[in-house]
Amino acid sequence: MIGTVRSLLSGAILSGTPLLYATLAEVVSERAGIVNLGLEGVMLMGAVVGFITMVQTGSAAAALVAGALAGALFNLLFAFVVITRRANQLASGLALLFCGVGLSALIGSPYIGSRVAGLPEIRIPGLAELPLVGGVFFQHDGLVYASGPIAVLVWWVLFHTRWGLHLRAVGENPTAAFAAGKSPAALQFQALFIAGLLGGIAGVHLSLGPAKTWAEWMTAGRGFIAVALVIFSKWHPLRAIGGALVFGGAISLQLQLQALGVPVSPFLLDMLPYLLSLALLAAWGGARRHAAPGSLGRVFQRSD
Amino acid sequence: MRPKHLGTGRTLLAVFVSLLLALAVGGPDAAAQPSLKVGIIHLGSINDAGYNQAHAEGVQIMKRNLPGVEVIQVENVPEGADAERVMENMIRQGARLIIAASFGYLEPALRVAQKYPDVKFVHPGGYKRAPNLTTYWASTPEAFYLMGIAAGRTTKTNKLGYVVALPISFFLANVNAFELGARSVNPKAETRVVFTGGFLDPAKEAAAAGALLEQGVDVLGVIVDSPITVVQAAEKRNAYSVGYHYIGAQKFAPKGWISGIAFTWGELYTRFAKQVMDGTWKSENILGGLGDDYLTIAPFGPAVPPEAVKLVNTRKSELVSGKLQVFQGPLRDNKGVERVKAGEVFPLTELRKMDWLVEGVVGQAR
Fold first, then answer.
1. Exposure string (b/e) for B133-172, b if CB count within 10 Å is 16 or more?
2. Interchain pair A255, B207: CB under 8 A
3. How far is A37 from chain B (nearest CA, A)?
4. In 3D, which of B233, B246, B222, B218 has the Cα closest to residue B163?
5. Among A236, B22, B257, B321, which lies 20 to 30 A Cα-Cα from B300?
6. Which among B193, B200, B363 has CB closest to A217?
7. Quick check: A113 and B366 CB within 8 A?
8. Greatest mean pLDDT among A52-61, A179-188, A290-299
9. Do the Cβ atoms of A259 and B44 come within 8 Å?
10. Domains (ranges, CATH) in chain B?
11. Distance to chain A for B207, nearest Cα, Å
12. Where are the domains of chain A?
């Protein structure tokens, strides 16, 4: 029993980590007024470039940097289309997704079946040996430990710095921000660069975390789950931690129940995370109507 | 400046060499060799370290065996109208044999086959045929039974685990065969099965492997597109592993590798191509198994006791000769319902109807 609970918690943390990075990416993007449905493509670019870098150099640090930058650069392509060219964000996002799926498959295909060490597991001395909780909380790769502090950092930057204030102003009302002397386009470019870094990191954790492999479209819908988790967490970086853990926990729980041999249909269990999301959205639906950034998804037209 | 005549000389030399080459290639030798264009379409990428790669490697071996054969290969073709267009395009380019290498290509291949009666088609796993369409497959439960014997003799906890994409009948049959093999040598062996809901989600496969290992499972098998993630997860936790689709997976688990099952289509494809060239090709339903050259058992790892390897070989010859049957009654499912009566055998040709998990498997078939 204790083993099952431990496994459930550590599974929740591992499954939740890439979701948290991806959700933070979308929070930053949407706070700047831009919906990015192509996040999954960004994650795939991070996953494949991180994996290839690890195969080539053997360095997890180099893989992380390369994967994050690949995500950021790929997201700048989206930024150019939706900010500079003012294209429709939903259509461009979907185009970015399929572009990312194809491009990552193309550059990743020679590396399928390559062997990598993956992200090294860091045991926190003194804590990892603790009975019961040691293995659950203090025996993970570095990206797991960093995810919480990075969520706090994103929250602090968005809500406690001038830059964050300006960014949110652009997301609420770009015309007012423009009138106040801020360049909405410049801020949005910066936001999408940061979102790309975070999306790339999410991808690196998918390919170099527990899975240690590259496979085409290995994100398997997590980019879209992250877009839903943003709504779930009311566009707030700290609530995103809870959202990612609840969803990661639901994935972990259904696998755990199967391994235990609980007599419930595997089809039903596979729906569990999504049923849970629907239930939570239904329960809190009305309360989040006003949480969305005011100009989310709108194209800012400078009137000059 | 370079003297001009040297350049001209080189050009002449190049023309001369090309003429010689043309004579050598297109000379009487080449004309005497029968030639054939073969088209193959894949659902996924041909280096997926899994299902598609096995077919692609089969075609490469066919090419090596028959130098007169030319191959047109297209990857990532969606099942449906796209597949039909690609096949017709291959036929227009001169293909006379089409390998429609995914289960979902059956209907498109049947439609194209009707339009082009002179072109031969082969389809893996199909349940319908045409005068110019052959179906072929290798039945896997016997091989899984042998894996079960090796796993049942290797396990220390008597708990075996399987990470499986979806609860479809062929996969249920494989897991059942694995458990029956394990129980034949180890009455205490149980197999826990976790379905991931998809063929390709490595992060979830890793989580499923973790959940099974936490329950005390010390042998992990896998039925998804690529075995790499699960085999690595087992190795990391000092557990044993059984691969599928990709024999090369052994390099990911040098310590814990038990064995694996893979399809090796090369010789069968060579026979198909030869038959088309010499006119002996005919429409058949080929269901092979352990005794055929297109189902291969990977080398056993160091963890498997030598007497277990010997036993596997004995059982293998008994299965091939028909002396031993995998689904020999009496068999009950894991809910206690009798599924195969004493003295009866569940035939390997009826696997489509196997919608239950055998006694000893912990898991839900539906």
1. bbbbbbbbbbbbbbbbbbbbbbbeebbbbbbbbbbeebbb
2. yes
3. 20
4. B222
5. B321
6. B200
7. no
8. A52-61
9. no
10. 35-138+265-288 (3.40.50.2300), 141-256+301-362 (3.40.50.2300)
11. 6
12. 2-113+144-289
Nearest CA among B75, B73, B146 for reference residue B298: B146
Q: Hey, is the C-beta of B206 within 8 angstroms of any chain A C-beta?
A: yes
Helix axes B141-154 and B169-185, enclosed angle (nearest 10): 40
> In this complex, do B47 and A251 lie within 8 Å of one another by their Cβ atoms?
no
Structure confidence at residue B226 (pLDDT)? 86
| Other C-beta atoms lying within 10 Å of the C-beta of residue A304 | 4
The tokens for B161 are 């685990």
Phi-psi region of B75 (alpha: psi -120 to 50; beta: other; left: phi over 0): beta
* Domain spanning A2-113+144-289: CATH 3.40.50: no
Average confidence score pLDDT of chain B: 89
Tens of pLDDT, residue by residue over A91-137, are 999 999 999 999 999 999 889 889 899 999 888 888 877 777 777 77
A206: contact with B, CB 8 A cutoff = yes
Flag whether residue A216 sits within 8 Å of chain B, measured between CB atoms. yes
For residue A140, the distance in angstroms to the closest alpha carbon of chain B comes to 13
For residue B278, count other CB atoms closer than 10 A to its CB: 9
B329 near A CB under 8 A: no
pLDDT tens-digit profile of B165-201?
Answer: 999 899 999 999 999 999 999 999 999 999 999 888 9
| Contact B228/A at CB under 8 A | yes
Mutate to test the interface with A, among B46, B159, B215, B231 (most CBs of A within 10 A): B215
Q: And the tokens for A247?
A: 């969803």
ipTM given for this complex: 0.90
**B104 and A CB contact within 8 Å:** no
Residue B194 touches chain A, beta carbons under 8 Å: yes
- What's the gap in Å between the CA of B325 and the closest CA on chain A? 28
User: Which residue type is seen at B338?
Assistant: E
- Give the model confidence (pLDDT) of A270-289 as tens digits: 888 888 878 877 877 666 55
Asked whether A266 and B167 are in contact (CB, 8 A), the reply is yes
Q: Do B49 and B56 touch, CB atoms closer than 8 A? A: no
Phi, psi of B195 (to 5 degrees): -95, 135
Q: Residues A223-230: what's their mean pLDDT?
A: 92
Work out the burial of residue A250: count CB atoms within 10 Å of its CB; fewer than 13 is exposed, 13-18 middle, 19 or more buried.
Answer: buried
DSSP B24: H
- Test B203 with A209 for CB contact under 8 angstroms: yes
A250 to chain B, minimum CA–CA distance in Å? 12
- A131-168 pLDDT, tens digit each: 777 777 778 899 999 999 999 999 999 999 999 999 99
Distance CA(B294)–CA(B284), nearest Å, equals 16
Q: Is the pLDDT of residue B17 over 50?
A: no
CB-based contact, B74 to chain A, within 8 Å: no
Q: What angle do CA B171, B174, B176 make, to 5 degrees?
A: 110
